[in-house]
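Q: How do we represent a protein-ligand complex in a form that can be generated token by token?
A: Start from the inputs.
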Amino acid sequence: MITPDRTRSLPLQALAWALPLVRERGATLAAVVILSCLGSAAALLPPYLTQRLVDDGIVGGKVELVLQLCAVFLVLMVGGVLIETLSRLSYLKLSAHLLFGLREQVWRHLQTLAPTYYARTRGGEILSRLDGDVAEVQRFALDAPMAVLNGVFSLAVALVLMLSLSPLLTALVFALVPLQVAALILSRPWLERSTHAMRKESAAMSSFFVESLRAMKFIQASNAARRQEAGLRAHHGDYFAALRRSQLASLGAGGLQRVLSGLGVLLVFAVGGALAAAGDLSVGVVVAFIAYTTRAAGPLQTLAGVFMGWQRAKVSLERIRELAAERPTVQSPAQPVPLAHPVRGELRLDAVRFGYGTEAVLEGATLDIPSGTKLALVGASGAGKSTLIDLLQRHYDPQAGRLLLDGVRLDLVDLAELRRQLVVVDQEPVLMPGSIRDNLRFVAPDADETALMRALDLAGLGKLAHAGGLDRPVGAMAATLSRGERLRLALARAILQDPAVLILDETTSGLDLPVAQAIIGAVDRVFAGRTRILITHNLASVGAVDRIVELRDGRLVEPDPVRSAAPLLRVV
Ligand SMILES: Nc1ncnc2c1ncn2[C@@H]1O[C@H](COP(=O)(O)OP(=O)(O)OP(=O)(O)O)[C@@H](O)[C@H]1O
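Then emit the structure tokens for the protein with adenosine-5'-triphosphate bound:
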């Protein structure tokens, strides 16, 4: 579970978050560490051997030694390639485990957040956190310790070998390190700001795509395609400007590092060359040093890269922390009170108060719904009918008062059990991509083919299912089904869920009266004797009901005969 821990510094948080996942792959981590140290050692030996090759072999005239050292070079070269391949494969395994594990944690958290979070957060913002930001943190959490380990090991080995060759030249090479560190520290705010701007632009562009793709039919019908293209171009412009700033910052900081390490090479050339010319140093030592100076620049640059990577990861971690700080509005109780089976479906609202902000949507809402009641719930648009349903399905808890199912307070019932017993079919039910079977199995993974066909038959989709079979794809956003078919498919899902309470939230509104009545007829047949709540603006479409209640001024009251279109009421 991701939780922001303000007591820890950001780098520690990034590592603490990743640690349990790394621990699960202890053996792979050990392999990566050992192989990368072996690889570094294999890369550092050749310059040392070069000195022997030049001074003892070539200058000393020992042909046999030259050949022996060439054979050692060959072994080191082939061994180095093998070690690097194995090391990269192990790294890939560890890296994927970490990335997927971190992303699964964020996803798990997202699945607990309330509809209010999704109502106010742009889809692209969430996507870019799930994708780019998680990857950035993962890269840092794994790359940084590896790079530090590798860099420090390589530098230590190089330092020992260089000191054994020439302490003076070693001091010259390392004299520039403080300058390199100072350059990094100075470039830090620049790097951080530019990374922030880039991630923000990238999230805005993802949001643009997510929102436009969903609204494509509306964009086409409103002749807004050109304006959308211009919108995309504007996003591209902003993104490119931010990308250029970020690249300039990285190139500037990286370039400065390269110039400083290049200066080190020049110093070795100048001082080492002068000493060798004067006969105070062998040519082999100068050649080996030039190789070491360029190689020592590698680990130094890797360490500088860790620093720059940290600037990026810090921004991402901050964005993930923002997401982690969103707390779920409801949680399943640790010790749930079991419902007596079979669940009767008796509902009770007792002086319920709820509002999204300071203003109450429901205030003192009280109602008893005996088991098996078919209740019509009416109320003006915005009165709070859907909000009431969200409270019943426990997307939120009331700020005062109680809601009970079979006499048990909803917040004491296991959340999964509650949502199994209380099913809502919306006006625009959500259908998942895939086939009709996939959609039915989404709510009832264990149902067999016979149960699926029976549910479709009862929901009035028998013909369609028999014609195209259960494998008929419903298409992205269920675009291949008519609205009536989508509703019937949602009803078939509800039939498979077999709840004690069924709620239809304006399900049949906008349909032709005969179609609406046919769907309600199917509901009445299948759910006869069970509690049903039908939210509607048109009482004629929901058939005979046991009771009508109006939601007015936050309370549940007897309906206003004028506003409820009295002639249409048919209460049994
Ligand atoms: N996520 C939200 N954040 C803030 N306010 C909200 C949110 N959802 C709904 N509201 C507000 O709460 C009030 C009740 O909304 P609700 O959707 O429950 O009404 P409704 O009776 O179902 O309306 P309709 O019949 O038009 O569907 C409205 O004023 C609405 O603007």
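The longest helix spans residues 225-277. Strands lie at 347-354, 362-369, 374-378, 400-405, 408-409, 422-425, 501-505, 531-535, 547-552, 555-557.
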